[in-house]
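Re: beginner question about structure tokens

> Can someone show what the tokenized structure looks like for a real chain? I only ever see the sequence side.

Sure, here's an example I had lying around. Input first:
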Amino acid sequence: MPSTNQRRWARHRHRRYPQIIAVLTSFVLGTNAALPQVDFDRMGKVAIAGSFAGLDLYSSDGGPSASFDATTSTIFLRSADGGLSPIGSTNAGGSVVAGCSLGDSFYFAGSFSSVSGQNAANIVSYNPSTSKFTALAGGGLDGAVEAIYCDSSSKSVWAGGAFHGPSSGASGYSGSVAVYTPSSNSWAPPGFGGLSGPVMSIVSNTDSSSLLFGGSFLTSYQSGSTTPNNNVTSVSNPNVPQSSGSTPFSSSLVPFPLGGAEITAGPSSSRAGLGDINAILCPSGEDGPGSTWFGREGSYNTIIIRNFQAMTARGIRLGNTFFDGQSTTVFCVTSIPDNRVLTLRYNVPGSSETRTCSDECPLSTDPSVAFQDFVFEADSITGVLINLKEWAKDGVGLHLLQLLSDGSFASAVSSDNASPCYAPGPSNAHATGSWSQATVNTDIPATVQTVLTSNVAVGSTTSPSVTWNVYTSASGQYEVYLIVPGCINMQDCDSRTSVDVTINPGGSMSPVTTTVSEQNPQDAEVLVYKGPLVPSTPDYTITVRLALAANPTGQGVGGQYTLVAGRVMMKLISTDTSSNGTSTGGSNGTATSNSRRGFGIYEWPLRNSPSNVNATGIIPNETETSLTTAAFNLYSGLGNSTSSVSGARIESIVPYTSDKTFLGGRFTLRDGTANIAQFTSGALSALANQGLNGVVSSMVLYGSTLFVGGSFNSTADNSVSLRNIAAYNVGSNQWSALGGGLDGPVSSLGLSDGHLSVVGNFTRTLITSSAALNAAGLASWNIAGGRWTNSGGLLVGKISSVFNATTSNDNKQYISGSISMYLKYGADGAASISNGESGQPAITPLGARLDGSTVSTSERKRWLLSLRDILAPRQSAGTPLPDDEAAPAPSVLGGVFWTNTTTSRQVMIIGGNFTVPGTTTTSLAIYDPSDESVVGLQGNQVDGVIRTLLIVGSKLFVGGEFTLQGVQGQSFAVYDLSSQLWDTGISGLTASSGQPVVRSITSISDSSTTVIVAGSFASAGGIQCNGICALDPNGRTWTALGSNAGGDIETVSYAGSNAEILLAAGSLNLAGSTVYIAAYTSQNQSWTPVGTLPGPVTALGVNDRNQSSLFAAGQTSSGAFVSHWDGSQWTSIDLPLSASSNITQLELVPLQEDHESKSIIESNRMLWISGSLSGSNFTRASSALYDGQNLYPYLVTSSASGDAGSISSFFHSFSTFDFNRRKFLAVGVVILISIALGAGIVFLLGLIGILWALFSRRDDRSFGQDTVVEDDDSVRPSSLLAHVNAAARNTILGTPKNDYYVHKGEDTIVDDHARPSTAGSQPAAAAMAGGAVTAAGEHNALTPVTTTDEHDVNRPAHARYSFDGTGEGELPLTSGQQVVVLNDQDPTWWFVRDNATQREGIVPSAYLA
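And the corresponding structure tokens:
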């Protein structure tokens, strides 16, 4: 079914956000413009973490991370993974509110004049293949488009809104609906002509046999054989306000725009937001501060309105305030300048009784009365004085104040035409020929008027002209006057002549021309027309034209006549158009007492459509459908009169079955049904709890659940709290909330891949009544999971609409709104990154949401991060470490990958500064990407900030700045994943003053029971160890590393072939001297400095354990630096980084394609640089790659407000990996070689196997330092060789010892970075919260390494990839297949069993997880 689009009634005022991301300028720092191709998959699972709300790949041409003009509406393509890509923007002030797909094109509609430089009026087509926008026939439509529908059967586009027709000409159109045919590039009116008011929704019924139109319009149907009285067709103006305190007559009087008037009130209240009298002239908000005026408490008050020009006023409109119980009860009105107390006539609210008053007029204190109209008779006045005499509670007050005209009006001077309150726009005038502006006195003292004058030659056959388009709010009987300034005041009596004034009454009536003499000496009001007026939609205007008379009078002066054009005034006599109508013939006409009226919904059949139907007139009753009854019910339920339906509207229609249709919008029926109803079994009825207490703007159906968005906070009976978004179960007839809702109105809803996309004027999604998440007008609800999730991209601004990009189920969407900045991916502090298409990276944001605004300690945590120099006391007397980057919650500062061997599901453990919404979990949690869930560890929760994580065996080591109830000391703790308990027996850390800080936790090679903890502290467990200490977690004992070093340690790494060299970086004191990197060897148990650097080190990278190739970064007083150690000295690397850059991590990463080898970095790798970076040739980045010569900005991050973000951690699941890419022989080649060799040299192979076993025993201790061997067919052992080797080994050597092979996950030290350790890739045997774990000997099944226990492990695993397994002894695998690992003694080939078939065989270890 083509996409459904619902129109938002009120357009959101554009709000300009700070421009916080400049478009990244085009530049090339290296030889290639494209990003380097990092081989992330060779490192296993890879993730980044930091302080950001969104991220994107750096682009040298400025996009996709870019800034926009927030006054425009930008259109984005939202991919299936939520990533955003901009495709175009409207003109300033434009908006896009609807869209649908037809064929190869997508159609966007709204209120705009251009899109991406293509002139297009309110509707445009877009070709996704060419990325080109194209205007439709005639340039588009002449008014705003609110809804469109793409009909695939007729290959046409239906548009609805507040327009008359095509911009190039709307002859033959009745308004509000038009049909576009792409094949002929042409517009046509619909078969029913059009509708009498704005259309806001167009959808098809359940079988696509008809279209349903919703909006604010009236329909009239014949009743029996009754013939209409006349052919004058009234229109209903939805802009006209209604109240039980007004009448149809008074409601039709257009208010004077008082923006240029002098309005004073005094004395006014001093209460905030309640002392501005101008706030009540046309209030847009609810009764209260900003939209209400209070007089000073206990004071008699006076309001004076002076316009200083003549006004033909007819009444005053007052809306009482009920805010804080304060109201005005008695008042009177005096005219200016004649100072006469006016006699007011008003309707008693709730009755048909009319009363009059003068000195003491009552103002209703009934909150259900929106306002009261008081009409009076008066000659031209210049203003009024309103005395507020009595009040309720503390003083007088008003919510609405308007001065009513005696109908409508317009000036020939366009600048004098302001827009009246509630009008779709101002009256206007345009002139042809040469006219000049003049200001002249009027007959009222001290007043002037501005008019246009033009000279025309006597005897001329052509004439200048002025045409007024007068906003006329309602159909009715009018007297139309031309206001002619007196010639004495203008001193041009001799040159005056006569003019022809032509008025077009509308409603199919013929124009009427009257000749008027302008030779009047005094100001005159000349009657030019008396009769019915029917304003044209959608502007609701009447046109009046003035030109030289066909037979002008007078002689002129100097051969010239003078024409004068001033004002036109239309005086309302009655609202009945049935009398004195002008006949035009035809079958359609106005509604009569015998016709039946409908409102807000109209059904048009697409098959066998009737002919000769005009839906703006009387509709033949043979065209009625089942939904016509719904329109009748609406009209009747709203009050059964044209005045009672004014202001109501249907904004969304959702067919459920052929017998049930849901209607949403703004309406309240007499039975209490509010804003949403269902039409079922031939009748309109309420939903549960009478509906909702606010406007419904959009609805979508998912199964039997109806999702409803709008501006409401509860059900109509106030029994169920629902904040702007709700779910309605059709089967159980019950309402339910979506979390805590949203903090602002919803304008549009969409569905994509089991998620509800929500857009609107909100800033946060509410998890509970006290917990919320940032959301810049775009949110996503996981329907199955029942929670708010990551919506995809990061936006700064507001989103107004969402619609499916195609008719196919590809989960792509278009969204549009007023955006100042965006990043393609939104993520609360963490994202995975892997190899994508064409060698480019694929980013997968954290699917769950994190926050920190509702936790009692969140402000303290932000303070901790921004003022570390106070809370993280320095242990070194030398140059201190630089302050950390600010990391306001939510921030993720470190993480580790971990596989639960019971479920074989790999998850991510994250730590930082955050809370998990709706829970008590803080700063430490487990994220499962399979279902996008985040759960905390069982037990007490961390109170503070986590900086670094490490897993060894079944123990999780946690470091940072925190306290934890039940654990000794601060900032360091150990969690036993097998028992799911915190270890309370380990003595804690202490600082010389304040709170200790742990920044790095790593483990030592060949001694998996030893863990190195580093940071800023003075002692551990009573052992003096300044900033760095060793822990035996099994014995729970601490040991100092040497005795001559200490200080503030930022990061720890390892070097040497056996990782025997420990490198500590930061700001250290070594034997009384300040050093920034020191090396420690366990053999000597001593520290030595590693060269001389200019300042404290914040990041350290070791090139493949090579102690002669180190990279260090840090800061000095002059800014950031990066240096390289070649084994003898440090050499500064000249990078184009600004002084404000802060580098937090350095690591060498493998590449998919080699680069040209540089002197300090090999061709198959690059240096990954993380942090907060800016440079001389780029604005900002959060990570970059360095190849030894060129710097390539790589990732850009941003906070939710658009400020620069930072990356703190880059971690991966493989603790070791090979930089060299393997070349594989084809499987068939290997088989042929095996066959050729196997028959002749089997005994030789056996001998080789025996010798290999002997030598491997000798080299066992060094095996643990080798890198992981990737699957290589060229070295694949045959089944015979494998069994011969195994037999020989067991015969000659016996069963290997438990530590024969070093566990690469636990025993191999990996480089630590400035924040959390990459040793986070260490495997662990632990369960997620609530899951089962084993006590020891488990390891990360994703890493093809051996274990420290017996190799007959008997543990579950699953296949990551398919494996043909055609060799003898091999077991074929299918991706996802479950197996049991029976033996993992060989690092490359494992022996497994398929429990489903009980077959056993060997498979490549790298293929298992």
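Each token stands for a local structural state, so reading them left to right follows the chain. The radius of gyration is 40 Å.
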